[in-house]
Design a protein that fits this description.
It contains 15 helices and 6 strands. The protein has 431 residues and is of the alpha+beta class.
Length: 431
């Protein structure tokens, strides 16, 4: 819930840069992909580590059975002193409590160390044992690419370290040159095949992730204005209010209604009305949002709602002024309006301060009372209503939209507005 508008189209489109490097340019998008990918991969990683454990123990048995030689015991040092502990540690780190924080940093260290253990076992092998031991490097390479939840770049990096360690051992004469050359060529071919498969798999996963994000954005956002739709707002509202209550922060609600919008559609046509609604929605969103958790959504046909998390009465009043000014600055002609010759909006505001009742529907209802009071006074202004507990159910802090300056006469509002507000508040309390 870091914003209320759909991400730009370019953020959710495959680009040449991330196709080449398999990394989204947007850091937050990359973080969310990795979290999603790793959460999905966790059950398979656990299975793969069980297979790795079985492989280590299986090779221990078969080595002592078939690879009889004077230097075999030294290889067991790397097998049981390095590889087996690494596998066991990584299995522990796949538990839900540890996985998200510790598995990825640990596996990117453990994977190269495991491969180094295989290289050291090849160094300890006799000339007759060496071709068989070196063949295990292929298993390690494919494990990097497909089995332990590494991204393509991390798997490639681990394999390059594996190839480098094996080449260095051959260069220092620890491994016979003929076998080393042959093994390195086979290992290179395995990396070309495994790397291509890993790249294609991760690319497909990234495209599928973007498609899911795109579908989610379409489902959550209003197609005309780009704001959150009503259903998405109601889904997010509960967590927003709970967060504010836990943090002891105020919450304000603004209901914004476009004045005489039906008359605008009748006068200029529905296509012009759609363009007008888009422009007004963008202006309101820009004027209202100041914090990451602030939400702006389309609430009805021509009605927009803003939830300001962390914004108290004073900040809500400032936001209402900004909204009125932002719409006025659009200077959209409206010759059918009895209020002004240009398009205007009316705003109703209500706030919950720390210690108050953190109830979304109740506060929205109070904002609606304030909106009605503003309309009764002639529209193109804003009102604040804080519920029937306030003295005489007052509607306070109004301003004229003509000069957007406080007007003492507007603070109290008309008598009809005050009566309507009190009656509406009584009905809200009763329900």
């Amino acid at each position: 819930m870091r914003g209320t508008h759909a991400p730009g189209a370019t953020a959710l489109e495959p680009t040449a840069a991330w196709r080449r490097y398999l990394r989204f340019p947007d850091a937050e998008l990359e973080r969310q992909f990795l979290l999603s990918y790793r959460a999905t991969a966790r059950p398979w990683i656990r299975v793969s580590l069980v297979v790795a454990l079985s492989t280590v123990l299986g090779f221990a048995i078969i080595d002592h059975w078939l690879l009889v030689g004077p230097r075999l015991a030294r290889a067991d040092v790397w097998r049981f002193g390095l590889q087996l502990p690494l596998v066991l540690i990584m299995m522990v780190l796949t538990t839900p409590r540890l996985y998200e924080r510790w598995y990825q940093p640990a596996i990117q260290v453990a994977a190269p160390l495991f491969g180094l253990g295989t290289v050291l076992m090849a160094v300890e092998a006799t000339p007759l044992q060496l071709p068989l031991v070196a063949a295990r490097l292929l298993l390690v390479a494919f494990y990097y690419y497909f089995m332990i939840g590494l991204t393509f770049n991390a798997a490639l990096r681990s394999n390059l370290l594996l190839i480098g360690a094996y080449a260095a051992a051959a260069g220092f004469g620890a491994i016979a040159g003929t076998v080393a050359t042959y093994s390195l060529f086979v290992l290179l071919c395995a990396n070309l095949i495994g790397g291509a498969g890993c790249y294609a798999l991760e690319y497909a996963n990234r495209v599928a992730f973007l498609e899911r994000r795109r579908l989610a954005e379409v489902a959550m956002h209003d197609g005309l204005t780009g704001l959150l739709n009503r259903a998405a707002l109601e889904e997010q509202a509960l967590s927003l209010w709970e967060h504010a209550q836990r943090a002891g922060e105020p919450v304000s609600v603004m209901l914004i209604d476009i004045d005489h919008f039906k008359a605008y559609n009748d006068c200029y046509g529905h296509q012009a009305g759609d363009r007008c609604l888009r422009e007004v929605a963008l202006a309101i969103r820009s004027a209202a949002r100041r914090r990451p958790l602030d939400v702006v959504a389309r609430y009805g046909g021509e009605e927009i709602i803003a939830i300001l998390v962390g914004g108290g009465r004073d900040e809500a009043a400032a936001a209402a002024r900004r909204v009125l000014q932002a719409v006025a600055d659009l200077a959209i002609a409206h010759r059918a309006s009895p209020t002004r010759p240009y398009l205007t909006v009316t705003v109703g505001v209500s706030s919950v301060e720390p210690g108050g009742e953190y109830l979304h529907e109740r506060t929205v209802g109070f904002a609606d009372v304030a909106l009605y009071a503003s309309k009764e006074r002639g529209r193109n202004d804003w009102s604040f209503y804080d519920g029937p507990s306030a003295a005489a159910a007052r509607v306070a802090a109004t301003e004229s939209a003509t000069d957007l300056a406080p007007a003492a006469a507007a603070v109290a509002g008309s008598e009809a507005a005050r009566i309507a507000a009190a009656e509406s508040a009584t009905a809200l309390t009763a329900t």
